[in-house]
Design brief:
This protein is mainly alpha-helical. It has 6 helices and no strands.
């Protein structure tokens, strides 16, 4: 822009040659908002990844637990007539577990847990008749103990909710983004 068009003889400067008011403030706000958005995006993505890993771990645990239930059922079937009572109690446990999935909340009665304990009691009452049945019964009891450990691991880890810090971070992140957009928006002229 030539000097003559910027400077007028009366000492005033035309509107288009003046810097916009609060130009530095807008630049600082924009910079700070961008830094917060980038940093919170990183934290948010890490928290999402952590939640994904938790859900995948629970999924693997449930599949392993289901597989071990099937293996225990087949072992009891292989054991013969003496294992029939324990096998029926295992089926009762499954019916209770499907009807009322266990949670870490111990204020409610745990019918499925009691049904699984009944399976253990039935296994303790079995008397093997020979060495082959003794070894098979030992294997069945080990499967049962593994099943109980896995059940409590699943009950302990299944909260089923997205972590509260993740929700709070998402809300703050969106608030900052939309707040910075609103701050930088041109003013409505009436």
């Amino acid at each position: 822009m030539p000097f003559s068009s910027v400077y007028r003889g009366d000492g005033s400067v035309p509107e288009d040659a003046r810097p916009a008011p609060h130009d530095d403030t807008n630049a600082v706000v924009r910079l700070v908002a961008n830094i917060f958005v980038v940093m919170w995006s990183l934290v948010f993505s890490l928290m999402i990844n952590s939640s994904k890993n938790t859900y995948e771990s629970i999924d693997i645990s449930v599949h392993t637990f289901s597989t071990n239930i099937i293996l225990l059922d087949r072992s009891l079937r292989t054991y013969g007539l003496t294992g029939r009572e324990a096998r029926g109690m295992l089926q009762d446990y499954l019916a209770h577990a499907v009807e009322n999935p266990a949670r870490a909340d111990m204020t409610k009665p745990d019918d499925a847990g009691r049904a699984l304990d009944a399976v253990g009691d039935a296994l303790l009452s079995i008397q093997p008749s020979g060495d082959c049945q003794q070894n098979l019964l030992l294997d069945i009891r080990q499967q049962y103990h593994r099943l109980v450990e896995q059940r409590w691991g699943i009950v302990e880890n299944v909260d089923g909710a997205i972590p509260m810090p993740l929700i709070a971070l998402l809300a703050a992140w969106l608030t900052l983004i939309f707040g910075s957009i609103g701050y930088r928006a041109p003013r409505m002229r009436s």
